[in-house]
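protien #1 (seq + structre)
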Amino acid sequence: MRVLLALLMLLAGAAAAAQQPRLVTDLSQSRIDISYRFAGAELLIFGAIQYPGGVVPEEPPGIAVVLRGPVEPVTVRKKARIAGIWVNTQALRFESAPGFYAVATTKPVTDLLDERNAAIYEIGLNHLQLSPATAAGPETTGRFQQGMVKLRVNEGLFVEQPYGVQVTDRILYRARIPIPSAVPVGNYQAEIYLIDGGRVRARSTSPVIIDKTGFERSIFVFAQDHSFFYGLFAVTLAVAMGLLAGRIGRRG
């Protein structure tokens, strides 16, 4: 009896899943190589919506496209002018700040999702969950988080495009995500959400790798694997260049 009940529940779940729309996604490239000539790039994320029974709804769908990664701890410091000198007066550490975060949507996030679902899926700059590790009140934490977000927006590392997703015939969608030259290397995740009634109805993910190539990659790997020798080489090179510049200056 229990086996039969479990089988019926499994069939019911499969039938319910079959009634949900699906997202089919592809990328213009799943790997972005950074060389010394890298001046930024653009990642095209596109795909189609598969509706149950092929019945396309009359209302245009809501789509959110998010590209994020890699996550790392970040310490944000606040400076103040004391006795004419700028010094650090406060600091707050976040444990899970993405090195890059971009979101494109068919309309503003507040018009697509309710606060709860936006926070669950971290859709939108105002809904990032950065996991503060420093004990501080909500007001202080919010102020430091806003400061960090503003700084990364100015650097082009945090991007929000309220009308950055184009939908054709309520089936095909596409979004172009700008990749700045200062983007950190690492593993990224492209996340696509189909939204209806303020809730996520379907989701699709695709991995993206951003890495250095050529001579830059060799230097990067050496610095990671042999940090002591890399530091020693950097100091030696700096001293040698300083001595060389001094001799040239004396000859002049």
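ok now protien #2
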Amino acid sequence: MQFRLKSGQEEFIFPVNPEEVTISRQKGFDTVNILSYGEFDFPQGDKVKEISFASFFPKVHDGAICSVPTADFHDPQVAMNTINRFLAQKTPLQFTISNTSVNVPVIIASHQSTFRGGEPGDVYFEITLRTWRELKAAKTASSSGKTAALVNKKPRVDMKPKSKSYTVKAGDSLSKIAKLELGNSSDWQKIYQLNKKTIGSNPNTIKPGQKLVMP
């Protein structure tokens, strides 16, 4: 098993495998505070995963603990500087663990080095990787002919309420319609006020087939 970081054509293999690897997964939430009701959590998909482990860069190659051949073995200072250089770059790296399903693009979130007095030359380290997601954008042509990028753009929801109508049937009255549609027969005046032009001056003269706008 080998732990590898690859940047373009450059590949770095960690010389000593860590004793354990922690992969952290979390559910993403947006928390909204609604007055008089408190906080509510709304799931928003998975958060970025974190992969963390600790090991060391030995000063001397030891076949009993090193997972890399001598040709791929680096001096601890060189190895540490390589990781620091990867940390500073803005493009993602490819992280793999051989013989496992771990093969993901990552960025280095943190890298900590430790020097111990009793082990001169060796460099101990802790590293945290975060899985990297590409920002997908769709291109559209604007009226001016220029190309514009739309990032995860969704159709706008029309929040304007749509008017509801009712078609008068034989035997209907405004109070009957108000009872059926609004739940209260006394609301017939609201219907009449909205439909005076259709009904006329007498609210009792509605006719079958007339379309009335509902409050």
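The mean pLDDT is 79.
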